[in-house]
Design a protein that fits this description.
The complex is a heterodimer of chains A (245) and B (236).
Chain A: H1 2-21, H2 29-42, H3 44-76, H4 78-93, H5 96-107, H6 111-135, H7 139-147, H8 152-190, H9 195-205, H10 208-237
Helix pairs in contact in A: 2-10, 3-4, 3-6, 3-8, 4-6, 5-6, 5-8, 6-8, 8-9, 8-10, 9-10
Chain B: E1 3-13, E2 19-30, E3 35-39, H1 46-53, E4 61-65, E5 72-75, H2 87-94, H3 100-109, H4 125-138, E6 143-147, H5 155-172, E7 175-180, H6 183-189, E8 192-196, E9 203-208, H7 218-235
Parallel strand pairs in B: 3-7, 3-8, 5-6, 6-7
Antiparallel strand pairs in B: 1-2, 1-4, 8-9
Helix pairs in contact in B: 2-4, 3-4, 4-5, 6-7
The chains are: A mainly alpha (245), B alpha/beta (236).
């Protein structure tokens, strides 16, 4: 209910601003809706959203898997941490644009280059978060698992993983928002389809309704994934915690 | 299971780089099914000794002999339950081979039946301690280590749990090592009492109790407690 209200306020502000600024600069909601419906009718909207989502899913999965594994290793093994730390600092501070441009130069304007570039941008934040989680593991519970001779894999699943889950969830959430932002840049620079490409086209044609139609559809998809996948997952892994006031 | 302990020394180095001894010349043997109780001033190194015997600390001089395949059940000073698993899952994780009948009986004895599907965060400390006991017994251990399992519980509950521990130890005849501050626990549960010195801990005196646990009357128990008090005074 509150969410609906806040959405209504957003629409009202938009409409009011459109009236003040003029339709040439900021088209009112109906104009954008019409552009979205036209794109949806031709199938282009769904195709481009689908392509972008697929890139997000691949890059995100790749970065999370690798990042969690590297982060766990760096949190557990001192040598791995000392070896990996300079690389981590380099990657953390490397601008996304540099990675994307270099990936396109070295690997060509290919799908692999785009997905790798997005994944590399997200990787270091996942590593840092999971490393912090690994450092915070409770040694007392490790001892319990040792005394009761719980096999390694079972101990990892039932003792270690639940402790890492909040950190993995945090890495997933911040990582997802990063990937959403970077995927459009990667598409704008070197892909012939996807939401980023379409926004680039709309920019060149100065087609603001089209630009907003794609942007807002994309935002709607992000919101849907956030509320239908990310939040339920977070709620599930933290269901044993007493509820915050 | 027989346990032979010969710890020559165990030392810690603190943050300032100073070395200090925690255990010195700690030698004893526990026979199969025997309950050894360690009593000593707090901070004397009892928990350090238990960690060595449980195989958690290998950094010491000396040796500890017990069968390699001995199953260990341990109750730590804090319950050490997994907060993200229910009571039953906590027990089953440590004892995957325990069957439903055994678990039900155990939960019934420890009055945990109503709490099987609760998370540890929903339990009082007394209940959590009972779950830790259930977990240690569910593995049907050859070697049971109890590190002040009844600390900070009210007297009535501690007495009930003590009787339950006695019953479980006798029904399975497991070699047991109990560390406690409570003379009551020591005298009612032990087959042999070991009196420890302040740090570095060594054994000051050993006091066997020959009457079986179940046959100890109140008079005898207060008699042993009086002897024990005299011994600890004499050794101060």
């Amino acid at each position: 209910m509150l969410r609906l209200l806040s959405f209504a306020v957003f629409l009202a502000v938009w409409w009011g601003a459109a009236l003040l600024a003029g339709a040439a600069k900021l088209p009112p909601p109906p104009a954008v809706l019409a552009a979205a419906v036209a794109e949806a009718g031709s199938g282009a909207l769904f195709f481009n959203l689908g392509v972008t989502l697929a890139r997000v899913a691949l890059a995100f999965t790749l970065a999370m898997t690798l990042g969690a594994a590297i982060g766990y290793l760096m949190g557990r093994v001192r040598l791995a941490n000392r070896l990996g730390d300079p690389w981590l600092i380099l990657l953390l501070n490397l601008p996304a644009l540099v990675v994307i441009v270099l990936a396109y130069i070295w690997a060509g304007l290919t799908e692999v280059a785009a997905i790798a570039a997005i994944a590399i941008n997200k990787l270091p934040t996942a590593v840092v978060t999971v490393r912090e989680g690994t450092r915070a593991l409770d040694a007392a519970l490790d001892e319990m698992a040792t005394v009761f001779a719980i096999p390694r894999w079972r101990a990892f699943r039932h003792v270690i993983l639940p402790q890492l889950a909040p950190y993995i969830a945090a890495a997933a959430r911040s990582g997802l928002s990063l990937v959403w932002k970077i995927v459009l840049v990667a598409e704008l620079l070197g892909r012939p389809n996807g939401v980023g490409f379409e926004i680039g086209v709309a920019f060149q044609l100065f087609d603001i309704p089209l630009l907003l139609a794609y942007s807002l559809s994309f935002v709607a998809v992000v919101l849907a994934i956030e509320t239908m996948l990310v939040q339920p997952f977070e709620a599930r892994v933290s269901r044993w915690r007493p509820r915050a006031a | 299971m027989q346990l032979e302990v010969e710890i020559a020394s165990k030392a810690f180095t603190n943050a300032a780089g100073e070395r200090f001894d925690v255990l010195a010349d700690l030698n004893f043997t526990l026979g199969a099914g025997e309950v050894g109780v360690f009593v000593g001033p707090s901070g004397c190194g009892k928990s350090t000794m238990l960690r060595i015997l449980a195989g958690l600390d290998h950094d010491y001089q000396g040796r500890v002999t017990r069968p390699n395949d001995a199953r260990i059940g341990m109750v730590f000073q804090e319950p050490r339950l997994l907060p993200w698993r229910t009571v039953e899952e906590n027990v089953r994780l440590a004892a995957p081979r325990a069957d439903e009948a055994t678990l039900s009986a155990l939960f019934a004895v420890l009055e945990l039946t109503a709490h099987r599907s609760h998370f540890p965060g929903e339990l009082s400390l007394g209940l959590a301690r009972r779950v830790a006991l259930a977990r240690a017994f569910a593995v049907e251990p050859d070697f049971l280590i109890l590190d002040e399992p009844l600390a900070s519980l009210d007297d009535a509950l501690a007495a009930r749990l003590r009787d339950q521990i006695a019953a479980l130890v006798d029904s399975r005849s497991v070699t047991t090592l109990l560390v406690t501050h409570s003379m009551d626990d020591a005298v009612r549960l032990g087959d042999r009492l070991f009196l420890l010195s302040p740090r570095p801990a060594r054994i000051l005196d050993v006091m066997p109790i020959r009457t079986p646990r179940t046959a100890r009357g109140d008079a005898e128990i207060s008699g042993i407690k009086a002897d024990l008090a005299k011994l600890s005074l004499a050794n101060m």
